[in-house]
Amino acid sequence: MTHRPNAIAQTADFEFAALNEARNYRTALIEEFQSHLHGSVLEVGAGIGQMTTALRETPRVKRVFSVEPDEKFCAAWRARFPEQDLLQGTVSSLQSDTVWNAILSVNVIEHIADDHDELARYHQLLQPARGALCLFVPARPEIYAPIDRDFGHFRRYTRSELHEKLERAGFSIHRLRYYNIAGYFAWWVNFCLFRKRYFGVSSVRFFDRAIFPAVHFLESKVCPPPIGQSLLAIATAR
To answer: Most buried of 16, 31, 61, 81 (most Cβ within 10 A)?
Structure first.
């Protein structure tokens, strides 16, 4: 399994400052997955705990176990959740007899050269309970930008590509759709056209408070978008 190295300063900025402002975005994402998050949940790629907080507050989740490979992120995570279970490493190094009801993997597999092995490992962990994979990844290769490379992204996914990879790994797909069409165009303008290499805290805050709620309502309640900044998938291990 090969992880592409990140530009540390930029990635830290991204995690610790800008995305801290994306509160509505994180809440909406957990709500999308909520009906499949219950019992024992494995969080892959915990970062500094941005999603962990929301996951711990999900009503039917009884236990959260988190995995994160980055040493600095683990230190920050443990400072926030000293009583929580955290493994510094990857799912390949996880030794556990736990029967997992769900895996939450948000913006993880794009960092891995052989994403098929990662998905196969998810399937192996979920198969005993026929558990659910709640997966979120960057979408659309045409908006792959220099900042993607800085963050260690090997790829951005198309819907058909992710569909094929999930099925090949042994999953039955319940939901697979593009997510955040406004973010698609914002990403293209900022990071493809103007080739920015950073996230602005104020820009993320404005998008999260002023734009995203309306976009999310239309996408989730009216009509899923034909393209998006990301892909959201819910799949069950068969």
So the answer is: 61
